[in-house]
Amino acid sequence: MTQETEIPLTHPKEASEGIPPVMGPGYTFRSISEKISSITLARRTPRAWWLGFAVTFAFTLLLLYTILYLLFQGVGIWGINVPVAWGFAIINFVWWIGIGHAGTLISAILLLLHQKWRTSINRFAEAMTLFAVANAGLFPLFHMGRPWFFYWLLPYPNTMRVWPQFRSPLVWDVFAVSTYGTVSLLFWYVGLIPDLATLRDRARNRFVQIIYGIMAMGWRGSAYHWKRYEMTYLILAALATPLVLSVHTVVSFDFSVAILPGWHSTIFPPYFVAGAIYSGFAMVLVLAIPLRTFYGLQDFITMRHLQNMAKVTLATGLIVGYGYGIEAFMGFYSGNIYEKFTQLNRMFGPYAVYYWALIFCNVIAIQSLWFKSVRNNPVWLFLISLIVLVGMWLERYVIVITSLHRDFLPSSWGNYAPTVWDWTMYLGTIGFFLALMFLFVRLLPMISISEMQTLLAESKEAGEVTTEEKR
Amino acid sequence: MAVDSEGRRFWRSLEEYLDTPEFQEMLHREFPEQASEWTNPLTRRRFLTLMGASLALMGLNGCSTQPAPREKIMPYVRQPEGIVPGKPLYFATAMPLAGVATGLLVESHEGRPTRIDGNPLHPASPPGSRDDAEVGSSDLLMQAAILGLYDPDRSQGVTYRGQPRAWNDFLAELRRTLDKLKNQGGEGLYILTETVGSPTLAAQLNELLDEEHFPKAKWYQYEPAGRSNVLEGAKLAFGEYVNTYYDFTKADVVLSLDADFLFSGPGTLRYTRDFMSRRRVRTRQIEPAAVKMNRLYVVECGMSNTGGVADHRLALRASQIELFAQALAAELNVPDAPKSNRDQLPLEAQRWLEPLAKDLREHVGKCLVLAGDNQPASLHALVHAINHTLKNIGQTVKYTAPIEAKPVDHSQQIAELVQEMAQGRVQMLVILGGNPVYTAPIDLQFADHLKKVPLRIHLGLYHDETAALCDWHVPEAHFLESWSDGRAFDGTASIIQPLIAPLYNGRTAHEMLAAFTEAPERAGLEIVREHWRNWWKQQKHSGNFEAFWRQSLEKGFIEAKEPEFDHRDLAPRSGWAERAAKAAPARSVSKSLEIVFRPDPTLFDGRFANNGWLQELPKPVTKLTWDNAAIISPKTAEKLGIAYVGIIPEASGRPGRRGGEHGEAVVDVIELSYRGRTLQAPVWIQPGHADDTVTIHLGHGRWRGGRVAKDVGFNAYAIRTNETPWFDGGLDVRKIPGATHVLACTQMHHNMEERAPIRTATLAYFRDHPYFADELAASEKEKPGVLAQIPGPQPRGRAEKELEEEKKTDPDKNRLIPLTLYKEAEKEFEEESKQLGEPGKEPSKGYQWGMAIDLTTCTGCSACVVACQSENNIPVVGKEEVLRGREMHWLRIDRYYGGEPFDPNQVSAHFQPVPCMHCEKAPCELVCPVGATVHSHDGLNDMIYNRCVGTRYCSNNCPYKVRRFNFLQFADYTTSSLKLMRNPQVTVRSRGVMEKCTYCVQRIRAADIEAEREGRRIADEHLLTACQAACPAGAIIFGDINNPKSAVYQCKEEPTNYALLAGLNTQPRTTYLAALRNPNPELEMKT
After folding, report:
1. Are B957 and B935 in contact (CB under 8 A)?
2. Within a domain: residue A4?
3. pLDDT tens digits, one per residue of A268-286
4. How far is CA B769 from the centre of its chain?
5. B327 touches B340 (CB < 8 A)
6. B915 chain-A contacts, CB cut-off 8 A
7. Phi and psi for B376 in degrees, rounded to 5?
């Protein structure tokens, strides 16, 4: 492998249309390994990393403190009440679960669809998924009045002969989220194995070698290994694919199974899935843009990736916007006074500000993504992605709060306002999520080395075609 | 006495510390190692002692040497052979309040009273729902008295200037002072009581004042919310003090002049029951077209519960009500009536006069006019004359001897006492009950003058404001710990018997007074029985006194009628009108606002301020908790520039961020200036309140007297003068710019929002359209066709005739619940019914429980809410949590307004109790992930607390929002006295668990077991829910809807029966009977 040639990494057709390449030019197998593993194996941790980790870890401690206080006092420390018995906990749960969708979508669905541009973003998108699901899982657990009995939602044999009540969507939730979490973890770890072996091989520190060595599970890169690896990866992708759709569908059942106006709606499953992918891609953009700048990975996470993700964001965002439209339309078309009232109350009631802010974030702001100049501008993309994340949080706020706070009998109408503990729990999970991301980029290859190398090989083939044509 | 090495003195009890002879004796007698526990009155050992005491009560001569009543008290009706542990016993006693007693039936578990109901045999607390019920009805104060008994904040020992002392020390000082005073014939000895209704206490006081003892001593009475006006009015009319009571069963037309007789005052339970018995519409025996109802006109200032259910309501300023009565008297040609200034009345009031007078005249002898306790004596005199003219005396109005032992004018009494104090004539003041430092009129400066008295003694339940200014404070025994007696609204005498030994070594007023005249050791029982033995002799009854005594205790009242309490026919004496005119107080007449003082609906005059149940109970009309407010009308608010949001009945203040419409209300603060004194108060906008008037409630703003009472609300006594204690002009109101106050209100949204949860119609409309509640969603406007807007299936949009036909051919159409689910059960029941009586057959299956709530008769009095709280161990959460919308009441009473908010005469109030609906297709059950809420075989929507993990999904999915969640640890697990209070048959819920109305499942199961054992079916009279038992109006009907003979089945067959939010197809087991009102067509037509 001493003689490595430079190969153009763009399909000529794409190049002629001005589409940026999926990888910057001038990379060889070795340089890819070198570039990605050096971030992990670097002797010195950048100062900025330490700073960022310290801040996010502080928030993680805040989360820990909140949870301890919560266990000590009860969920009454939050702003929930009757009628609004679900508040930030459920809003944040749905928000995090939604964010957790992009990773598996990118790695599994795009893998099956042979979208090669996914390779450089799938690893950290998957990590993001895991961390988001971990955070999401905290909320339903701790929002329970008696969280120490969480296992009563599981069907386990016991002497009391009690069993979960399978008509409740909350039970489906348990299965959907835990299955999704498990498959995502497996998928991510299986994908990591060849890279862990690379790190093991490249590490100079004995301790690091042992750790990565254990994690690499004896990977030697033989053809047998590769054959089995590819098969496993493909099967896991096939398993994960329906989960992407099922998880948020089930989460949406938490609402649509209820009889509450504003919740009881058949449009929820598709519109929730679209919303999940929408916010997931926004989160990937929010993470990718600073990462590629900080670690100089513009060649691996190219404008091509950013543009494609922007397009997916726009497309799913439009579906979400359509969902809002249909929701409002059905509210009036149904002739049901409760549905109609709920719609009007969302638009003009005490929480109208949230509703219109959500419309701005999720419907109006993303229209700028129609413009190529915006899609080509990482700073703009970053800002719009942040807006989308805020918008999707607001969406869940509007769904949960406005439907509950004024339902059927005017005598029981009420308001909801979060307390300081609602905020510490939410900010704590953001801190926890980012702290985990910091650890991830420091300790594991954030871009799949082996897959990037296959990309190189395929591009080489493509490149050869080009040279032939030149002749 | 132990002395340690450093010479510090250790002591194990107060007795030891003070080294009393009793302690010495005890040392010889008892086991000294247990004596240390005496200081902590509620240790486990103490609890066992109390249990032991109650064993002794049962006649099993226990061997306890601890202080326990050594006397027998009689169990009620069913004398037990012995105590069956776990099986409650019921004892009859009575609750005295402001000199009037109401019968009680107290449930006692192993010697500790846990629950209070009315005594069904007592005239003042008859059962509301059925005559054969085992318990009588009750009001919210009666229900809450049990918490008053176990209140951990009650004062727990004798104190001298704040320092603990032994009872004997007190006696010694008392004796010394009395010996001194005895020489001067008792001059300088002053006794201040509340209204004395107890014949025994009055006899004791009279004995004290007789020649042998202290002839020059003085006895004063002062009651801040007393009924002086009523008695003085009677005196003006008849020349003597007379007690007046009413018989509503005979009244077809009732006019109430500011009298809230369906909510408060003596006899209110009886009145409610009798009044509502003439209002209940049942079409089983009678065709809808022939249904009749009585008619109620209410002229009042504020919006009361009575005004809420009235057929016609006129809002007048308090001072105009007398004018109105005078004009009416002129219209009715009442002889000697004062000149009518009809022109001074508002137009609406003038419009009322003729139709009203006509209606009254048409019902001579069958109508009733009554005036409120707060209205002046002159009005009461006038009302007596009107009733006389209408020939109601002896029919609907009855007169007896006064029930107060010594009727007096309380304003005069307190003024005299203060004068005596000011002149330094008072050597020793004994305050037996009451809290005059807090309640006395502010202009008398009672507290300042009290300080001049050399020896001040206070007997009270709490170490309150008065106790703080007294030298000696003696803890008073609660009435559930006392032997005493009292008289009901109609003169019936009751013996008050203790249910438990005094928890905190309290003394009764009887015991205290006994110490003045004779041996202090004389027990309450001796004193009371002695009095009645003398009475027995005087009345020359034949037979055995012991048997009579025993029977009286069992029954709860003295059955022998006394001649002075036979009703008499009186006619006003000539010249009453002039005397009345002279007696009228000088009022500040000006064009400014009027101020009205009222006892608080839940705290009364402030004596219940430390009762958490009453503090947290939403005030029946305003729905405020934990606060009082200056209540004004929307128009007045506008005039004063008070902020509100939106169209008025929507919001009385701005919904806050926390609980909002169901919890937090942010309101403006105003400054009330009246006769040179100012008071700041949060303002509450009340539709239906008379314009240009501010109503403030007494009883809040306490600065001592318990953790709950302290610093809640503002003190209305701070501007209440002796001259005009109830209402007056000359009030100035200034809005304090920028100042706001946060009130905890459980229902701020007053509008029904096209949802028609309450359906109402006039009687005339009902006669033509008996199925109106189903046919149209009767908002008060009664627009036909509104039902089309109500979503969901439209079961009865068809013509009534068609429906009637269907009902005849298909009996299933009569059922609320489609038969599909129950055919099996019904067949089973039929078979079982045949088998009933055969030994060995189990008749327990086939019950289907259901409830109907009659909105025509519900007055919104909220007794059911407290009854539920007491029965089901429902915790109190405090103002902060109510602000967040987390109150725990399983049963709430929704209140909506109808009509035009800016015209107080047009506003109507509607009350709707909302318990769990026990839906057939319960949305809550479907969504619980652990199956903690499930359906029982007899149709209950059960809640399994120990299975609940607290996801709260059930609450979200409940369209009625009747589920309550323990967001924090609301139940008090630590206060030991409260542990004694709880119903042992109901779980005390922990944090993180959902709870809700169970239809009192513990009662159902108990009745089930009983019925099974006796081989019979549970009939209506065997099983009442707590709310049903309490309801004086009989508005809550519960029973087996599978039994065609049950009252609830018959209610559900009524044409007015409808389900709340029926369109959701939840098929609720609780249904409502639509409210009917009976307005006078002549008065209606002109609107």
Report:
1. no
2. no
3. 999 899 999 899 989 989 9
4. 36
5. yes
6. none
7. -65, 160
> Residues of B numbered 1021-1080 whose beta carbons fall under 8 angstroms of chain A's beta carbons: which are they?
1060-1061, 1064
Sign of the Cα torsion B1075, B1081, B1085, B1087 reads negative
Q: Using CA atoms, how far apart are residues A144 and A147, in angstroms rounded to an integer?
A: 5
Helix axes A119-142, A268-294, angle to 10 degrees: 120
Mean pLDDT throughout A62-68?
95
Three-state SS sequence of A314-347? HHHHHHHHHHHHHHHHHHHHCCCHHHHHHHHHHH
What's the average model confidence in pLDDT over B293-315?
92
Is the alpha carbon torsion for B260, B263, B268, B274 positive or negative? Answer: positive
- Chosen for mutation from A72, A75, A81 (greatest number of chain B CBs closer than 10 Å) is A81
Q: Is B331 helix (H, G, I), strand (E, B) or coil?
A: helix
pLDDT at B74 over 60: no
The alpha carbon of A442 is separated from its chain's Cα centroid by a whole number of angstroms, namely: 19
Domain assignment present for residue A2? The answer is no
pLDDT tens-digit map of B176-193 = 888 888 888 888 889 999
**Inside any domain, residue A390:** yes
Q: Which token pair is B198? A: 């107890």
Over residues A435-462, the mean pLDDT reads: 78
- The CATH number of the domain where A68 resides is what? 1.20.1630.10
Residues of A whose CB is below 8 A from B996:
none
Dihedral sign computed on CA atoms, order A113, A119, A124, A126: positive
Using alpha carbons, list the distances in angstroms from residue B64 to B46, B214, B349, B350, B958.
Answer: 12, 39, 67, 71, 53
> What are the helix (H) ranges across B212-346?
228-238, 268-277, 305-309, 320-331
CA atoms within 13 A of residue A266's CA, in its CB half-sphere: 2
- Which helix (H) or strand (E) segment holds residue B456: the answer is strand B455-460
pLDDT band at A63 (very low <50, low <70, confident <90, very high): very high
Residue A7 in domain: no
Nearest to B618 by CA among B629, B626, B610, B630: B626
Eight-class DSSP state of B493: E
DSSP 8-state code for residue B562: P
pTM above 0.90, yes or no: no
Which of residues 252 through 291 in chain A touch B, CB cutoff 8 A? 254, 257-260
Query: Which residues span the domain enclosing A162?
Result: 12-470
User: How many domains does the structure of chain A reveal?
Assistant: 1
Average of per-residue pLDDT across B22-51:
48
Contact across the interface for A259 and B957, Cβ inside 8 Å? yes
CA dist B459 and B463 (Å) reads 9
